[in-house]
Design a protein that fits this description.
Layout (H helix, E strand, L loop, with lengths): L2 H22 L2 E2 L9 E5 L13 H10 L3 H10 L7 H12 L17 H8 L4 H15 L12 E4 L2 E4 L5 E5 L5 E13 L5 E5 L17 E5 L4 E3 L12 E3 L11 E8 L4 E7 L7 E7 L10 E4 L4 E12 L11
Antiparallel strand pairs: 1-15, 2-5, 3-4, 4-15, 5-14, 6-11, 6-15, 7-8, 7-14, 8-9, 10-13, 11-12, 12-13
Helix pairs in contact: 2-3, 5-6
Length: about 325
């Protein structure tokens, strides 16, 4: 056997050994059939965004001078904001949605309520479910001006976890993780408006009925090409020296990529490598290091905005990996 062939054989044998070792300690997070083991949060289910207003002119006009009882009530709560710019109006409406129930029988007399609204109303909800009820009531009262929101934004489609483009939100693991190797295959199908597919680590799990933090206050890795964002309270920016772009690949975002993320919450570090096509040798793309950011918590896929369609499959996690290096780059 020549030296070249011997080296190739040794490399292949080593890669196979690493692959077997990784599989032996890995746990599947997605069976290709259901979303069991995952939880969803759709921001639009409990709050209003400008993108959820289908007729901004008519909506603003009704809030400013509409004679109906719901508009009169909102106007007293919004005061001068009712005649202000749209972003201020949306902010004011969301403060109302996050408060006590807006329902009174006389106020909503003549408003046709959906079956979902009526069912939730009968349950006398609290916390996030109360915010959901308020949003449903608002949508029913302004059925021509506001889009109907959904509580979920992810489905199983042809063996993949697929976003439906419904709106900003996350789907996140039911379990928390500290030190792990996450591996998955993904592609960005389309977007209008467009944005990269996003993975969130070091997330904050919402407790009870509390309002979830936007993007679970996580650290965002954009896949496959390595953009990033820091959603921690007080941050909400693209970060600084804590992110390092190791390589700047130009992977086809619409093609399938195999991604490896190696993370350690105790140290606040994470590394990401990407292979395209899956099965090729991966290259390290993005690193993160900030001990103050490390957090035991769920892992999430983020739908950054409405109109995004991403797909994920072959999702596995290896808790407390024995090998502390990126195995897909070897």
């Amino acid at each position: 056997m020549s030296n070249i062939r011997r080296r190739s054989f040794i490399q292949l044998a080593g890669a196979a050994t690493i692959s077997r070792a990784a599989r032996a300690g890995s746990i599947s997070l997605f069976d290709g059939k259901t979303l069991d083991g995952w939880q969803q949060i759709e921001n639009s289910a409990t709050s209003l965004a400008t993108g959820g207003i289908t007729d901004a002119t008519a909506f603003a006009a009704r809030l400013a001078s509409g004679p109906d009882a719901v508009s009169e009530f909102l106007r007293t709560q919004l005061q001068d904001v009712a005649k202000g710019p749209l972003p201020a109006l949306v902010k004011g409406v969301n403060q109302i949605l996050a408060g006590p129930s807006i329902y009174e029988a006389a106020r909503f007399h003549g408003v046709v309520l959906r079956r979902e609204t009526e069912g939730l109303l009968r349950r006398n909800p609290r916390g996030q479910q109360l915010a959901r009820l308020n949003k449903l009531l608002l949508e029913d009262a302004y059925s021509s001006e506001l889009a109907k929101s959904a509580e979920t934004g992810w489905i199983v489609k042809e063996g993949a976890m697929a976003s439906t483009g419904s709106g900003r939100g996350v789907i996140y693991t039911a379990q928390d993780y500290s030190r792990y190797r996450l591996m998955f295959t993904m592609r960005h199908v389309s977007g209008n408006p467009d944005h990269q597919a996003c993975v969130l680590i070091f997330c904050t799990r919402p407790q009870g009925d509390e309002k979830p933090l936007d993007a679970l206050a996580g650290i965002q890795f954009q896949v496959p090409n390595g953009g990033h964002w820091d959603y921690r309270p007080g941050m909400n920016n693209s970060g600084g020296t804590e992110f390092t772009s190791v390589n700047k690949p130009r992977f086809d975002i619409h093609g399938w990529s195999r991604v490896e993320i190696l993370a350690d919450a105790a140290l606040g570090v994470a590394r990401m490598a990407v292979a395209q096509p899956p099965g090729a040798q991966a290259v390290e793309v993005l690193d993160f290091k900030d001990p103050s950011a490390g957090k035991v918590g769920p892992i999430a896929w983020q739908m950054h905005n409405a109109g995004l369609f991403d797909e994920y499959k072959d999702v596995t996690i290896e808790p407390d990996p024995k090998d502390d290096g990126l195995i897909s780059t070897r």
